[in-house]
Amino acid sequence: MMKTTRPQDATTTDWQDSAFDVVRGLSAYTGSFLIAGLVGVMARHPDADVGNAFNHKQVACKTWARDMLFESLGGEYGRIVVLGGWYGVLAGMLFDDSRFSIERIDSVDIDDSVAAVAKTLNARAGDRFQALTQDMYALDYAGLDADLVINTSCEHIANLRAWLSLLPPGTRVLLQSNDYFSEPTHINCVPSLEAFVAQAGLSQLDYSGSLPMKKYTRFMLIGTV
Ligand SMILES: C[S@@+](CC[C@H](N)C(=O)[O-])C[C@H]1O[C@@H](n2cnc3c(N)ncnc32)[C@H](O)[C@@H]1O
User: Fold this and answer.
1) For the chain, which has fewer Cβ within 10 Å, the N-terminal or C-terminal residue?
2) What is the rounded distance in angstroms from the CA atom of residue 144 to the CA atom of residue 167?
3) Per the confidence metrics, is the pTM higher than 0.70?
């Protein structure tokens, strides 16, 4: 069977060089907006934890979000706001998908080390992408005028219902959480999809589903507050 893990005897430097060359080759081969952005991140932000942000589980959760979003609400959006947007991978995946027509995406994260990386990853979007360093609890949601608010880190939100109550009624949302209780930074996991539906209390539910991963299950809701 083909090995899918990195050889143990390779040096880190060799692998960084090889990985950069491979990603640059993939960028040339695919012509992908996102992979071109990843080349830029690897060149300009060598300390960014892109291996984590782009691991196959993270990518699977985001392709699932993108596909179900398209099926549930379609592909036409004015402003999308992604909370806990990290390195902007989901924004990049949405810009990279020709099914979607999006005027702009704002990626908000409390960690001031991620905005520069997110901007590099989404450089080709130009002014259509903004990375903001801000606490999601402190945003002026009424003034956002967002077509869609995305939060795929609900397991990191202490009181989900309290946060959702900050959004103007009628706001469309895409939410993800999980049952990965053993991860110390996860302060508000849910045991099941039903528990997540009850926790969020959305006024309209367009999609609810589960994505089983190896160590945990991810849950997603798409609907309206
Ligand atoms: C580990 S990441 C994302 C994990 C998730 N699997 C995903 O990709 O959507 C969670 C992000 O939420 C951010 N975050 C946590 N609390 C926040 C807050 N109050 N406001 C804005 N961002 C926050 C963290 O800085 C981090 O970048």
Assistant:
1) N
2) 9
3) yes
Portion of the chain with pLDDT greater than 90, in percent: 88
Q: How far is the CA of 152 from the centre of ligand 1 (A)?
A: 8
What CATH code is carried by the domain that includes residue 115?
3.40.50.150
| Mean pLDDT of the region 194-209 | 98
Which atom of ligand 1 is the closest one to the Cα of 135? 20
Q: How many domains does the chain have?
A: 2
Q: Do residues 21 and 67 both lie within one domain?
A: no
Q: Is residue 216 domain-resident?
A: yes
Cα 200 to chain centroid, rounded: 19
Give CA–CA dist 120/96, Å, rounded: 15
Q: Ligand 1 in contact with 88 (CB < 6 A)?
A: no
Cα radius of gyration (the chain): 18
